Amino acid sequence: MTRRLCVQLLPRLRTCGHTANFCAWKSNQTKAITFAHLARFQSSHASAQASVETYSSKTRPFAVERVGGRECHLSWAGEGRQGVQKEWRDILPESAETGVSAPSTNSWSGRIASWLGQMFLPTNYPHSVHRSYLPFHVLQFFETVLATITSVLCNQALLVSVGVSAEGSIFGAVAVQWIIKDGAGEVAKLFFIRHFSPYFDSHPKAFTLFGEVIGCLGSGLQIATLLIAPSPGNFLLCAAGGNIFKLVGNAIWFTTHIKFMRYFSEQGNTGDVAAKDESQASIAQLFGYASGISLLTISHTAGYLYSIFFLAVPLHLTMTAYMMRVATFELLTLPRISCLTQEYVTRGDVSSLEELDKSHRIGLFGEFYKNKGDRWLTLAPRVNEVLKSGTELEQSQWQVCAEVFKDDRYLLLPLQAPQGPMISVFFHPDATNDDMLRSIMHAAFVREALLRRQPTPQGDIVPDDGSPEHMDTLSLTSLRSTLVESRQWTASNYSSFKESLEAQEWRTDELCFADHGHRVTWAHAD
């Protein structure tokens, strides 16, 4: 169950004429490959012709960025002005009859659909999932609705059976209060997942520990129901507030635990490993139930419960931290791959996980940088976050990079910062995991070449605020030659680099970085 980005090939962007410009190509999967390529070309040509009036009075976009199921067309501000202009557009499907895409628009419905997609659908959907993902999860939705209805009825029946009154208004019923408590947690979980789900791939261990911390906070808040006056409002305040923390913590645990089970499975036996994990958890829970009941026979007071709570929680979190430390997975996190590529560029080999950990060059769990100055690589950023001012220098440097990488599925853009050269890597929509790994190796070589470059008499200009800037002392000719030379070196050495990683048992089938799904197509002159 390897994580790969499977995206249909899109035609390359061109700035010559009006063909192959800035439209969403989506092939009809039922057609043959040759026909699909022809249909995409016709679609792009027709769409560009339909959009010629739009672009006639504006600067032609130098890049088109895909963000959350929409397109952001980026163009320079124009003559005599600086900055980057953005124009948002919806990605529209091709006509089933003509195979031609309708002219793109920027509608409220498209914005809402993009927002909902980022909350409920995986990054780069539907290209990042199996073809059966949609029907499976539609059925799962209705299955969950029906199961929840049954659960509500069971809760009410059980509460009535132990003497809790079922009379009164529906919102005053105990079962409904219990449901509101759970519902508040589910709503909070939605927004948390929308904002932080990409980091479950890049920082699974750190988020697991964080999830346990907030789960313990939720438990402490729920115990506080004994300290306040009994009423429906007070109950919901403590119970629902605590449940928010606990449900978010459980969501984190289940999500990261899926990854851990996959990593533990060395022979494709993920189902068996997960099932045995459940059986082990069942025994642990039975011991926990027995211990908890035994402790409750002593006292039920809030002070007693909190004393047990404050003894158990530190031990609980300590166990979690040690669990994350002993789980030594050979994952290529961003700090690790940054370090490994630098090793290969400088000495032609890479360290093993044990050697890298002993060197203490990587931070907590291998998911963080040891020092702030070690961070020189940025993967899949937003274009406008890198090209902020839109000066003539930025425009020239972007065009040089676009020319060099016109036939590649990634683009490198060097920046200058106080700690040295920094490299931003932009990915094309059809970039694969191999392309991403290659781009990081390429970026490491570019950085090393820039570090070796002799400074100009004026010296490199670095802003006082420490923010990265484009290297204004690096001539465009020097930049082009560095990128071309590094591209040739990467083509010759990538296979050897990947073999070196696999020889040290690193997992090359997956790059663990916070992928927000930003993909870019770039224009260049022929």
The strand line-up of the biggest sheet is 3-2-1-9
Q: Tell me the Rg in angstroms.
A: 27 Å
User: What structural class is derived from the secondary structure elements?
Assistant: alpha/beta
Percentage beta strand: 5-15%
Shape: globular
Number of helices: 16
What oligomeric state is this? Answer: single chain
Helix content: 40-55%
Give a structural overview:
There is one protein chain. By secondary structure, the chain is α/β, with parallel strands linked by helices. Helix content is 54%, strand content 9%. The protein has helices at residues 33-50, 52-56, 108-120, 133-161, 174-196, 199-202, 204-223, 232-264, 270-296, 302-326, 334-347, 353-359, 383-386, 392-404, 433-452, 476-503, and strands at 63-67, 70-76, 84-90, 332-333, 377-379, 410-417, 420-427, 511-512, 519-522. The strands form 3 sheets. Strands 3-2-1-9 form a 4-stranded antiparallel β-sheet. Strands 5-7-6 form a 3-stranded mixed β-sheet. A hairpin with a 2-residue loop joins strand 6 and strand 7 (420-427). Helix 5 packs across helix 8, helix 7 runs antiparallel to helix 10 (302-326) and helix 8 (232-264) packs antiparallel against helix 9. The longest helix is centred in the middle third of the chain and has 33 residues, at 232-264. The chain is globular and about 85 Å long. The relative contact order is 0.11.
Key attributes of the depicted protein:
526 residues, alpha/beta, four-stranded antiparallel beta sheet, three-stranded mixed beta sheet, globular, disordered N terminus
Layout of strands and helices, then pairs:
Layout: H1 33-50, H2 52-56, E1 63-67, E2 70-76, E3 84-90, H3 108-120, H4 133-161, H5 174-196, H6 199-202, H7 204-223, H8 232-264, H9 270-296, H10 302-326, E4 332-333, H11 334-347, H12 353-359, E5 377-379, H13 383-386, H14 392-404, E6 410-417, E7 420-427, H15 433-452, H16 476-503, E8 511-512, E9 519-522
Helix pairs in contact: 4-5, 5-8, 7-8, 7-10, 8-9, 11-15, 14-16, 15-16
